[in-house]
Amino acid sequence: MSRKRPSICDSLELTGEPAIASPSNVIPLSQEPAARPKPNPEVHHTSIYVPKVAYRKIREIAVIRDAKPHDIIMEGIDLVLGKYGHPSVADLKKGKP
Predict the structure, then answer these.
(1) Looking at the whole model, is its pTM more than 0.70?
(2) Alpha helix locations (H) across 1-97?
(3) Looking only at Cα atoms, what is the longest distance across the chain?
(4) DSSP state of 38
(5) How far apart are CA 44 and CA 17, in angstroms?
(6) Residues 6 or more apart from 17 whose CB is under 8 A from it?
(7) What is the crossing angle of helices 69-83 and 52-64, to 10°?
(8) Fewer Cβ in 10 A, N or C end of the chain?
(9) Mean pLDDT of residues grouped by 10 in the chain (97 residues)?
């Protein structure tokens, strides 16, 4: 014959009164904030708003090329820099004017 496991609900005292926090039932919060990676000082974070239809196309291109949408967007930045007579991102990183 199988025996039923005891339930933790059986040991609860449900009186309908709100629970009062006491040192025994309070879990202390960590004093240290969650660790975040240090930002790269060579990179500036920015956000852009892209129409959904355009972003879907960027993702589609990325999937076909086995890349990330970020890579496709960076390629577009290189094209804009070139259009206005500036070196590519890779050249700028190397220190070429």
Answers:
(1) no
(2) 52-64, 69-83, 89-94
(3) 84
(4) P
(5) 53
(6) none
(7) 100
(8) N
(9) 71 69 62 74 89 97 96 96 95 84
